[in-house]
Amino acid sequence: MLPNDPLRRVLYIDLSSKKYWVEDRGDVFEEYLGGTGAALKLLEEELPRGADPLSPDNVIVFAVGPLNALFPTASKTVALFKSPHTGNLGESHAGGRSAIAIRLAGYGAIVIKGASEKPVWVSVHGGKVYFRDARALWGMTSSHTVGRILREVEPGSGIRTIMRIGRAGEKLVSYACVTTETYRHFGRLGLGAVFGSKKLKALVVSGRGSLPVADRRVYREVYDSIYRLLTESPLMRKYHEIGTPINVLHLNELGALPSLNLQQARLETAEKISGEYLAQNYLGRRVSCAHCPVACIHLAALREPYEEEPYFYKTTFIGYDYEPIYALGSMLGAREPEGMLRLLDAVEAYGLDAMSTGVVLAWATEAYSRGLITKEDLAGVELRWGDYEAYIQAVRNIVEQPTDLYRAMARGVAHAAEKYGGREFALAFGGNEMAGYHTGPAAHLNYAFGARHSHLDSAGYSLDQKTIGKTPPAEELPQKLVEEESWRQVLTSLVVCLFAREVYKPDIVSSALRAAGFELGPDDLAKLGRRILANKYRLKLELGFKPEGVSFPQRIFETPTPHGKLDPAYMERAKTAYVELLLRLVEEAQKGY
């Protein structure tokens, strides 16, 4: 690590005392690079093990890595915290301008502790930190409005990130998100609720610093080679042209698109919510995260007439990706795109995680059809597949929580099903709602035992698709998933967008790190990834995660996958092997692997 690299500087912010200070933590970044690895170490140091996730004792760590602001698609920031949604480790990643802003402000990480008595937003402009009164912003219905106001009053346009919560975070919905740059999110596991519990409405960061490199000539050579791979090879083309919604028709054809609360894995009207259909009929803009040439963020232009003014229309730009389309589209029986887009816009405005919201609504729709919940429970809303006006009302009620049912739904599908019934069709794994792939056993093991309970932990959905017709033995599957998850710890410590994982292979990563002042070969990186993953699981266990207690929703065994119906006995054998492997990883961490 270069001695003058500002990555080594950690900004600590105490919301209780309204104080801040900076520490040189080069030791952490030299050992763990940054991102996930460094954030994990900093969180472990600061977080009391018995802390309530919604108490002042909880800690938020935002961390960037050595490749941020130096190389293209190294555009992500990692957030670690104790999750109010699962009760153990929370981890979420976002792009936008967040990573560039933190890096150029002169920091490798920002650690937020305590809680404010009154709503505040915190502004970090280079070496100065300001605590600003946010009472006028607290209670605003739309996070879009909050972002627009902060853009007007804060300096640093173009080199600034604005991370803020919506009404859902204020109301402590356990899967509330933090929105940055309008269309990117720290989405899963409830970071927005942690912001809300701390009365932190927003975090604004900007900076105009510069970064050192070890050798300018080598840096330029490595940069150019990565840039060419990103822009001239076919590796990233699909993300630019159609984006992740290209998955809709492919998964529907495979019989792997969760639909109607996974009562089926194909949707008859999937074409109407596909990436191709949206691009042809609604695509208004493509935008990029900072320092990314791919432009994978697709915005639909939804044109709606004003009721009392003929020939006059309001145009709303709405970001769409595969996961929100799955959760708010196929899971809810979408028959056309416009209702889905309006619901997606409402979810964005309130600051909710789209995947969790969609799974909760799908459970509630089925529970209502079965008579487990009533119209009175739903505050007069009647949930039926494809009825988007009802879903928009239900989302508003999840946030405002007028009944006991909505208060339960605001804590996630597992909690709601525990209280009202329907656990067999409540699609949660380790407390987190299912992602959009019913591809086979690897995907569901990934959801259950991945450190984030996310499809992005180890891409089980990808392994499933590669092994159709040749399902691996149950005892071997966990090892394959852990190997992939270990390498991803390296990528998320750099911090590279996982869409670019086929570009950032070990040799290229080593070359990029050398230009940034780190000497790590492919073997060193592999060992580091495994060590970070081991440390992560160790902390998860300390925070209350019990892998042996994780169960699979009954519904996943009822609806066929491309591998056929999942065999419960196979999944139990795979679970046993996975738990044994995780415990060995934890032993390695305790021995200082």
TrEMBL record:
Name by which UniProt lists this protein: Aldehyde:ferredoxin oxidoreductase
Cofactor(s) this protein requires: tungstopterin; [4Fe-4S] cluster
Keywords: 4Fe-4S, Iron, Iron-sulfur, Metal-binding, Oxidoreductase
Top-level taxonomic group: Archaea
Gene3D superfamilies for this protein: Aldehyde Ferredoxin Oxidoreductase Protein, subunit A, domain 2 (1.10.569.10), Aldehyde Ferredoxin Oxidoreductase Protein, subunit A, domain 3 (1.10.599.10), Aldehyde ferredoxin oxidoreductase, N-terminal domain (3.60.9.10)
Domain Aldehyde ferredoxin oxidoreductase N-terminal: 9-209
Any Pfam family hit: AFOR_C
Protein family per UniProt: Belongs to the AOR/FOR family.
Entries under InterPro entries matching the protein: Ald_Fedxn_OxRdtase_dom2, Ald_Fedxn_OxRdtase_dom3, Ald_Fedxn_OxRdtase_N, Ald_Fedxn_OxRdtase_N_sf, OxRdtase_Ald_Fedxn_C, Tungsten_al_ferr_oxy-like_C, W-dependent_AOR
Gene Ontology terms, MF aspect: 4 iron, 4 sulfur cluster binding; electron transfer activity; metal ion binding; oxidoreductase activity, acting on the aldehyde or oxo group of donors, iron-sulfur protein as acceptor
Organism: Thermofilum pendens
Coiled coil: none
